[in-house]
Amino acid sequence: MSDGGVPEGTFWTIKVIRPIMVQMHGLDPSAVAINDAVMDDATIPVSSYAPVRRVEPLRCPQCGADRDWTAFGAWTDPVRLVCPAGHSWTPWEGAPARGRALMQELILASGIEESRG
Ligand SMILES: [Zn+2]
C-alpha cells in the first residue's frame, strides 16, 4: 500500500519537540461529572456535553518526560520512542497496531525528514 508518496522501506528518525497527545483508556472523571450535571439540568443544551475520552501526553515510564522525544521506526513498524534522558521504550507493546498508527502519524506530521544514518 503506497500512501501519498511515503516510501515504505524508509527507517525514520523523527524529533518530536512537543508532547504526544494520545487517547487513554477510561473516561475523564471531570468530563463525566460535567455530563452528569448537563443531564440533570434540562435547560443546558446537549452541545454542552464534554468529550469523556481522556487525552494525555505520553510519558516516559522511567523518568516521566513528556516531550523532546526521538521517534524511530519504519512506516509499518510500531513506534519506538527515546526520551531526552535516553530511555528507549515502545508504547502499547501489547497493541502494535496502536504503535504503528502513531508512527505513521508522526511521519506525516514531521514534514518527512528522512534519517540519514
Ligand atoms: Zn526517560
Form type:
elongated
Strand content: 15-25%
Q: Order of strands across the widest beta sheet?
A: 1-4-5-6
Radius of gyration, rounded? 18 Å
Distance between the termini: 25 Å
Q: State the total count of DSSP E strands.
A: 6
Our count of domains comes out at 2
Mean pLDDT: 84
Structural class category = alpha+beta
List all distinct small molecules, including ions and cofactors, that are bound in this structure.
zinc ion
Q: Fraction of residues in helices?
A: 10-25%
Number of helices: 2
Structure description:
With 117 residues, the chain is an alpha+beta fold. It has 2 domains: 1-20 and 58-117, no CATH class; 27-54, no CATH class. 22% of the residues lie in helices and 25% in strands. The protein contains 2 helices and 6 strands, in the order E-E-H-E-E-E-E-H. It has helices at residues 29-40, 96-109; strands at residues 11-16, 21-27, 53-57, 69-74, 80-82, 88-89. Strands 1-4-5-6 form a 4-stranded antiparallel β-sheet, covered by helices on one side. The radius of gyration is 18 Å and the shape is elongated. The model is unreliable at 113-117 (pLDDT under 50). The chain binds zinc ion. Residues 60, 62-63, 65, 83, 85, 87 line the site of zinc ion (ZN).
